[in-house]
């Protein structure tokens, strides 16, 4: 088998076999296939596309290129959730405790944030002492006992994807549905869950800006999961404005605690309930989404979800006191309101700019080595469709550096478009994708 022949085959629009795709992935991972040949192959994929079977084969080849987490030591049907990333996206902190409180095992592998999208691990480190560096034995034991544990991503999880993505990033081959979906799904499949629920964000603060592209990506990933024997659902959720009110690490943790206490914002609760409902459905805990939603709401009403969150934090070495008294979290030294520049209605929010505002304040990473400030961020007071005046605070910024605050404030104001006519607020959820197709709302 020669890489030259396989590049030529894909360039001519032919379908590659599983063995040929495995040859390409393993050869590039071990260094026998050079960058220039892999670059040519990736460009051929972008120009000629891959079918579902090829995309599934690519996903599995990348998944098997490193560690494959075996969760068979955990009792029951294991569930996991993955988000394509957004601003103010703290659903994992709400979903995990609710689902675990209903005795469905959540065995989750999470990462840190890079750029303006926050990482679940960074947020959880708002709890003093919290650690995701669990041994495999501890991880399994925690899930079996409490039905919830989160560990950091292993360095050898889907190494082929890491190497291929770095090449895609510099060869203009990022924006291909097969390559994007196989990159995401290879890591989720390697993480070992039986049920995967995907939160595919769409809009100005999302990786996928258009509704059409978001549904296409979601359907491709669901098809991959189904092809390799994993129950997979995708929820298309809105990212044309931040999710919830809080943006920033410990501010988002506080909002998640408020939500688990029954006092959270409507959009965050709705998104969390929808995602968690499909986790319960996939785990065969319920027969309908309506039943799942009722059970999940009960975990908030009876306090079991909040109690589960505290139990989870304690089990991973953290001080859980702030779960029951959020005033114990460290606070930013400067808290300053931002006012609307003119009267009118919020008609548009450039959500990625809101994320960049948080990054400027120190709440995100520009590189993997960047230190983040867990206390900075913002609370959003005006969303799309809301009426504002020049005396209306549209947000409150939390900072520790006056210069960063000044730059962040200027950028934040530019993220808002205010018009004279009221516009309708976007739906929280735009649709559901299953192996049987898409339902659009």
UniProtKB/TrEMBL annotation:
Swiss-Prot/TrEMBL GO biological process terms: pyrimidine nucleobase metabolic process; pyrimidine nucleoside metabolic process
A Pfam family of this chain: Glycos_transf_3
Domain of life, source organism: Bacteria
The reaction(s) this protein catalyses: 2'-deoxyuridine + phosphate = 2-deoxy-alpha-D-ribose 1-phosphate + uracil; thymidine + phosphate = 2-deoxy-alpha-D-ribose 1-phosphate + thymine; uridine + phosphate = alpha-D-ribose 1-phosphate + uracil
GO molecular function: 1,4-alpha-oligoglucan phosphorylase activity; deoxyuridine phosphorylase activity; thymidine phosphorylase activity; uridine phosphorylase activity
E.C. code: 2.4.2.2
Domain Pyrimidine nucleoside phosphorylase C-terminal: 345-419
Record's GO cellular component terms: cytosol
Class of this enzyme: transferase
Keywords, ordered alphabetically: Glycosyltransferase, Transferase
InterPro entries in UniProt: Glycosyl_Trfase_fam3 (IPR000312), Glycosyl_Trfase_fam3_N_dom (IPR017459), Glycosyl_Trfase_fam3_N_dom_sf (IPR036320), Nuc_phospho_transferase (IPR035902), PYNP-like_C_sf (IPR036566), PYNP_C (IPR013102), Pyrmidine_PPas_bac/euk (IPR018090), Pyrmidine_PPase_CS (IPR017872)
PANTHER family (alphabetical): THYMIDINE PHOSPHORYLASE
Family: Belongs to the thymidine/pyrimidine-nucleoside phosphorylase family.
Record function comment: Catalyzes phosphorolysis of the pyrimidine nucleosides uridine, thymidine and 2'-deoxyuridine with the formation of the corresponding pyrimidine base and ribose-1-phosphate.
Assembly description: Homodimer.
Protein name (record): Pyrimidine-nucleoside phosphorylase
């Amino acid at each position: 088998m020669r890489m030259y022949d396989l590049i030529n085959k894909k360039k001519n629009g032919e379908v590659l076999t599983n063995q040929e795709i495995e040859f390409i992935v393993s050869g590039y991972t071990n260094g026998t296939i050079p960058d220039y040949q892999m670059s040519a192959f990736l460009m051929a994929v972008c120009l000629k596309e891959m079918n579902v079977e090829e995309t599934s084969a690519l996903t599995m080849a990348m998944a098997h290129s490193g560690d494959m987490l075996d969760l068979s030591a955990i009792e029951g049907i294991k569930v996991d959730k993955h988000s394509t990333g957004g601003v103010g996206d703290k659903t994992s902190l709400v979903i995990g405790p609710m689902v675990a409180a209903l005795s469905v095992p959540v065995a989750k592998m999470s990462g840190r944030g890079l750029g303006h999208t926050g990482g679940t691990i960074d947020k959880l480190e708002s709890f003093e002492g919290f650690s995701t560096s669990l041994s495999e034995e501890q991880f399994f034991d925690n899930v079996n006992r409490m039905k919830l544990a989160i560990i950091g991503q292993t360095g050898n999880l889907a190494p082929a994807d890491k190497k291929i993505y770095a090449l895609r990033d510099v060869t203009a081959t990022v924006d291909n549905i097969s390559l994007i979906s196989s990159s995401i799904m290879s890591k989720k499949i390697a993480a070992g869950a039986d049920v995967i629920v995907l939160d595919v964000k769409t809009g100005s603060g999302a990786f996928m800006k258009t509704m059409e592209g978001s549904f296409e990506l979601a359907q491709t990933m669901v098809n991959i999961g189904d092809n390799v024997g994993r129950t997979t659902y995708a929820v298309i959720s809105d990212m044309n404005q931040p999710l919830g009110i809080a943006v920033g690490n410990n501010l988002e943790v506080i909002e998640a605690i408020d939500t688990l206490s029954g006092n959270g914002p409507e959009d965050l609760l709705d998104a969390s309930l929808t995602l968690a409902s499909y986790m319960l459905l996939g785990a065969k805990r319920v027969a309908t989404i309506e039943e799942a939603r009722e059970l999940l709401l009960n975990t908030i009403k009876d306090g079991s979800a909040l109690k589960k969150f505290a139990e989870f934090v304690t089990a991973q070495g953290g001080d859980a006191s702030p779960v029951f008294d959020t005033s114990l979290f460290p606070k930013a030294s400067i808290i300053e309101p931002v006012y609307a520049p003119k009267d009118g209605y919020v008609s548009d929010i450039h959500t990625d700019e809101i994320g960049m505002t948080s990054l400027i304040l120190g709440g995100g990473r520009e590189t993997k080595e960047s230190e983040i400030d867990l206390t900075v961020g913002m609370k959003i007071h005006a969303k799309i469709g809301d009426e504002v005046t020049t005396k209306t605070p549209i947000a409150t910024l939390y900072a520790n550096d006056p210069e960063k605050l000044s730059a962040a404030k200027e950028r934040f104001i530019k993220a808002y478009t205010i018009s004279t006519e009221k516009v309708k607020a976007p739906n929280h959820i735009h649709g559901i994708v299953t192996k049987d197709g898409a339902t659009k709302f």
